[in-house]
């Protein structure tokens, strides 16, 4: 299935792959259990994997994750991924990735949504920058809300930041205009 998705990305003109290594196993998300969280049917993955996993005891998302995520993911899988594609690959969350040939690293903690007490990415960034020693570009995400957050990440050695929730909130509130506005606001506070 992974190979099929990669081939589809290549056909559609994508230039890079981001491999996320941050959730080999889903945390016990009590709110999801309480709310009996549903894993949405994903139209763009139709026929590739079943999202019809349900649980009588709680979070359907947890049941789905148990069924579909492979906790045995290892560095060999990155080598395999590189062997089937020429797309540039970025690894989210690991330093050893440089040795197995990824093109860059994204310092991320899954939006701090996976583990309690996970360190803030801005606190981990500098250490990763020193460990990688400019061999590959480093990006960072998590908690970037203001231009000053962008500034801090760049000052600590990131080449760029990625933004998750702010643009999603802008999209939900005002569609495309909302996304543009969020990005403008970040830019404005940097100038
Ligand atoms: C609702 C939600 C779902 C997410 N799901 C995933 C996921 O399935 N895989 C993943 O690698 N990251 C996931 N993330 C983390 C994002 O990729 C990204 O690291 C994070 O949102 C960036 O932080 P920010 O939202 O504070 O900007 C999720 C984030 C949110 C808010």
Report on this structure.
- With 191 residues, the chain is an alpha/beta fold.
- The chain has 2 domains: 2-23 and 73-188, Aldolase class I (TIM Barrel, Alpha-Beta Barrel), CATH 3.20.20.70; 25-69, no CATH class.
- Helices cover 42% and strands 11% of the residues.
- The chain has 7 helices and 5 strands.
- It has helices at 2-11, 30-35, 60-68, 75-84, 121-132, 147-155, 165-188, and strands at residues 16-20, 88-92, 104-107, 138-141, 160-162.
- A 5-stranded parallel β-sheet has the order 1-2-3-4-5.
- Residues 20, 22, 92, 108, 110-111, 113, 141-144, 163-165 line the site of flavin mononucleotide (FMN).
Proportion in β-strands: 5-15%
Q: Indicate the low-confidence ranges by residue numbers.
A: none
Bound molecules: flavin mononucleotide
Helix content: 40-55%
Which class best fits the helix and strand makeup? alpha/beta
Order of helices and strands: HEHHHEEHEHEH
Q: Please outline the major beta sheet.
A: 5 strands, parallel
CATH architectural group of the largest domain: Alpha-Beta Barrel
Task: Report the CATH superfamily of the largest domain.
Answer: Aldolase class I
Number of helices: 7
CATH topology of the largest domain: TIM Barrel
Mean pLDDT: 84
Order of strands across the biggest sheet? 1-2-3-4-5
The overall number of domains is 2
Strand tally: 5
Cα radius of gyration in angstroms: 18 Å
Distance from first to last alpha carbon? 45 Å
Shape: globular
CATH class (first level) name of the largest domain: Alpha Beta
Protein name: Peroxisomal (S)-2-hydroxy-acid oxidase GLO4
Organism: Citrus sinensis
